[in-house]
Amino acid sequence: MKKIAFFVYSTLLCFGFLLSGCDPMQYIVIENQTRQPALVTMVFHNAGGLYDLAPDSDADTLRIPLDTTATGNSVHYRFGIGTWRTAYALDSLAANIASIRIESNESVEIYREEAVKPFLKDRLRGAFKQLIHIRIE
Questions:
Q1: Rounded Cα–Cα distance for residues 76 and 31 (Å)
Q2: DSSP H helical segments within the chain, as ranges?
Q3: Who's near 37: CB < 8 A, 6+ residues apart?
Q4: What's the gap between Cα 71 and its chain centre?
Q5: Radius of gyration (Cα) for the chain, nearest Å?
Q6: 3-state class of 74 per DSSP?
Q7: Measured between alpha carbons, how far is 133 from 122 in angstroms, rounded to an integer?
Q8: Rounded to 5 degrees, what are φ and ψ at 65?
Q9: Which of 4, 63, 117, 131 could disulfide-pair with 94, CB 3.0 to 4.6 Å?
Q10: What is the mean pLDDT of residues 43-60?
Q11: Phi-psi region of 88 (alpha: psi -120 to 50; beta: other; left: phi over 0)
């Protein structure tokens, strides 16, 4: 009787793990690797487009100042479970961003509308493409 109960519980446990999946977390990391402060500005088509980047904000613009200290040179944003390659994940994010502006002492780069998705896609990293890593160099 114990063997049957063990088999049933083991089967249910394994089945539960299979249903839960093993998808990684989606991240965006913005990192300043210069020796000078930098600023990243994202303009969204609507305030709801800020996703979890600034949940309490109703503005359509997100300004991310980055300095050169170990604790201030990068920011990390989580977007839930999945990868950026899943249907519509990257498309949805890119479609809601009107522009990305990256300012440093060295240069100013601006990516608008149709350039946003290729910009983000070129920065996909990780074994499962779960990370968008924006480096300012």
A1: 9
A2: 2-20, 89-96, 116-121
A3: 65, 66, 67, 68, 104, 105
A4: 19
A5: 20
A6: strand
A7: 9
A8: -80, 135
A9: 117
A10: 68
A11: left
Query: For all residues of the chain together, what is the average pLDDT?
Result: 81
Using an 8 Å Cβ cutoff, are 83 and 94 in contact?
no
Residue position matching structure tokens 């997100």: 62
- Per-residue pLDDT tens digits for 85-130: 665 788 888 888 999 999 998 899 999 999 999 999 999 998 888 8
The type of residue at 92 is: S
Tokens describing residue 48: 């709801």
Please report the beta strands in the chain, taking only residues with DSSP state E, as ranges in sequence order: 25-32, 38-44, 61-66, 74-81, 97-103, 108-112, 124-125, 131-136
pTM: 0.76
User: What is each CA distance from 62 to 8, 49, 75, in whole angstroms?
Assistant: 52, 10, 13
| Residue-level pLDDT at 69 | 87
CB under 8 Å to 30, separation ≥6 — which residues? 40, 64, 66, 74, 75, 134, 136
Cα(4)–Cα(17) distance, integer angstroms: 20
